[in-house]
Amino acid sequence: MEIFDSVLDMIGNTPLVRLRRVGEGLPCPVVAKAEMVNPGGSSKDRPAVAMIDAAEREGLLEPGGTIVEPTSGNTGVGLAIVAAQRGYRCVFVMTDKVAPEKVDLLRAYGADVVVCPVAVPPDDPNSYYSTAERLVREIPGAYRPNQYHNQENPQAHYDSTGPEIWRQTEGKITHFVAGAGTGGTITGVGRYLKEKNPDIQIIAADPEGSVFSGGSGRPYLVEGVGEDFFPDTYDASVIDHTIAVTDSDSFLMARRVSEEEGLLIGGSCGTAVQAALEVAAGASPDDLVVVLLPDSGRGYLSKVFNDEWLAGYGFTTVEGPVVSDVVSSRRSEVPDLVYVQPSDLAKHAVELMNQHGVSQIPVAVGEMPLSAAEVMGSISELRLMEMAFDAEAVLDKTVEDIMAPPLQTIGSGQPVALAVEMLETCSALLVLDGGRPRSVISSSDVLSFLSEGTLHG
Fold first, then answer.
1. Based on the domain organization, do 137 and 251 belong to the same domain?
2. Are 372 and 313 in contact (CB under 8 A)?
3. What pLDDT is stored for residue 333 in this prediction?
């Protein structure tokens, strides 16, 4: 009888499928390794089993112990499946940019989940790396697989994913494209394929802003791919080329593949497919591009596949007058975005507002271009005036000590009518374009725009 002994035996041997429609007109075929058919729904099932097997062999994880791991979701699911089969407790640490359904999914497997802020450096006590380390120290019998350091991670892909791709393509693969997060997949598969044929090109698909493609690692919105440091499980010597992909291209490609190919894929899959299509566009008819799709889109329904979420972050545009038209119509001497850092003094905020003739500005961490996740609050002339009336020394305080909550946001491609409606209950809106803060608009900006339109009409 063809009956698996456990769900763990179902991991691997995932199929290849040709991307016929999105790859139409390209010089060579683009085929996808569909890792979402693993029982946990992602490629992370493979290293999850390998890391726990190794920990048990080495006596690092005792019966009844606790698995602690920082994860964007997929590794957590893989570890939770192993834990369910072998009687371990799980505690997972996630950032607050992760879709809520991913948190719910891990809890459905019986895991405990701790959510931490994304817009902090790795060494901050509140980062998800630091939080995971603290929990390992505090929980008796805790073991952290540490997917960013554990060499069983790339080894799992060297042992299984790489050989599968070689066999399934009969050795005809010429290019392998995959995202890099821990680097385990692309490192393990890349090593195996290079041993079989050194001419095979290994291409990393990376979010714009991640360190792998030369960025600082500052927050981007696509989940589960890219990093703000170089993990020990990432071997740069295996990578022939890295392609940076924007959040916008990642999300829109994920939706396109889902709609045109019937493959419901996540944002990081969109990153990989976008890069794979670029690679195939410059290839020859004899080439074969294989792109690894790490997971399903089911974990992103509230974000990537939510029209309102996409519009609110400025990834889509409606017909008719939109918010970006308001921004473009303003007088040229007004800069796109005036903001202050949390560590700046309040008096500096006043100077900036006076200099540029604005009455309120965002408070954000980092340099331009900012990410939406880096906006921490806001500060206004009215708030400063009210506080200064009570205490003159308020102007010598840091912005962080006196800032108000962040401004409400609106997408650059959303209708002006929505801005009018929102400005009835607030004094200003932060405009997001492609997931990044672009400008602040007020009622007077919208009124000027509408007046101009009336006059020209």
1. no
2. yes
3. 65
